[in-house]
Amino acid sequence: MPVGSSNNEKALSDALREGDVNAFNLLYLKYDRKIYYNLKKLVHLEDVALELHQDVFLKVWLNRDKINSDFPFESFLVTIAKNIAIDFYRRVLREKKLMDRLINMTTEIYDPVTDFMENKALGEIIEESINKLPPKRQIVFRLIKLENKSYEFVANELGVSVGTIKDHMAKASAFLKAEISKYDSELLVLSFISLIRIFQK
C-alpha cells in the first residue's frame, strides 16, 4: 500500500506514536520538501528555513506521543510548523541583526507582480517607498529591478557611466531598507498572515 494512502498513513502515525523510527522516516520523506518550501517561502532565508525545518521534525519526534491517528498526520505536522514559525518571528523582534537580514532580503527579492499577487499590502509598502526616491534614481531602480535591465543598458539609455548607475542603485537600496525598516510591526503582521495562508495550501 502506498505511503500516501490514508489507511497506510494512519498505520504509520500509530507506529510513530509508539516510537517506530521507520515510520518516522517514511513520513519525513513524504512531507519534508513541502514543509521546507513553505518555510522558505515564508522566511526567504535558506539557512533559517533549513533550521526551522529541522526543528519541525525534531519536535514531531519529541511529541510523537501526542499524535492522534484519527486525524490527518499532516494537520499535526502543520500545527507544529506554524508554532515554530511564529516563535521565529517573535525572535526576529528581539534580534535586530535577524530583522535587518529579513529587511535586506525583502528589498533584494522584490518582485512587484509576485508581491502584489501574493501579498498586496507588502507590495504597497515597497511601492510607496520606491515612489519616495528622487526621479532619476527611481527610474534607474525600476529599470534594473522591475524590468531586469542590465547596468550597461541603463547607463547607455541615460547617457551616464555604469559607475553612476551602481551609485544610484546602492543609494536606492540603502534608502529602501531604511524606509522598510519603519514598518517592522506591519511586516511582522503581514508575515503572520502569509504564514497562515501558506500552511493552509
From TrEMBL:
Key words of the record: Sigma factor, Transcription, Transcription regulation
RNA polymerase sigma-70 region domain boundaries: 27-91
Residue span, RNA polymerase sigma factor 70 region 4 type domain: 124-174
Highest rank taxon of the organism: Bacteria
Protein family: Belongs to the sigma-70 factor family. ECF subfamily.
NCBIfam families in UniProt: sigma70-ECF (TIGR02937)
Protein name (database record): Sigma-70 family RNA polymerase sigma factor
Organism: Pedobacter riviphilus
Taxonomic lineage from the root: Bacteria, Pseudomonadati, Bacteroidota, Sphingobacteriia, Sphingobacteriales
